[in-house]
Specification:
single chain; mainly alpha; Alpha-Beta Plaits; three-stranded mixed β-sheet; 3 strands
Amino acid sequence: MKKFILIHALLGIVLYLGGCGQTENTNEQLEILNPNNRGEAVNEERRAKLGYVRYTKEDLAVQDDNNEINFDREQLADMITRTILQSGNFNEAASLVTDKEVIIAFEKRDNLDANLAAEIAGKTARSLLPSFYKIYTTDEPNHMDVIHSLHREQMNNKDDLQVIERVIEEIKADHAEQDWR
């Protein structure tokens, strides 16, 4: 009888410790997936690998019929903003990405011409985005605050879309339309 109780007690301890270890591992895995940890190098080996995919027409026919291309707008905005700041010509930058437009608000360095700053920001975004996107740039601090206030909103909110369109109209009125191709 004592053997039976001892075996069950040891088994219970082993299962308990194994479960706690799994919980820590699960928390660690969830932390890796946290989008707020973008600045940290999570897995350098994976980051160093090349991206490669190869399909045949038959492979695609087997997959679902959804041929729609989806972009992670937050990831695009992050990439655009980081790249603009890495040019060394800007003190601050913010990007708002919708389905068809990108609004880039920035604070340029004092020694940089405003038109040149707009061109640098626009060409940077153009190099990172599909060609169907319309890009609007502004150095108006008010616009940076407005797009910041919209960053958590969704594309299906009509009020937010109207605010975005109003900002675009203001930018168009302040700046001559430019095409950075």
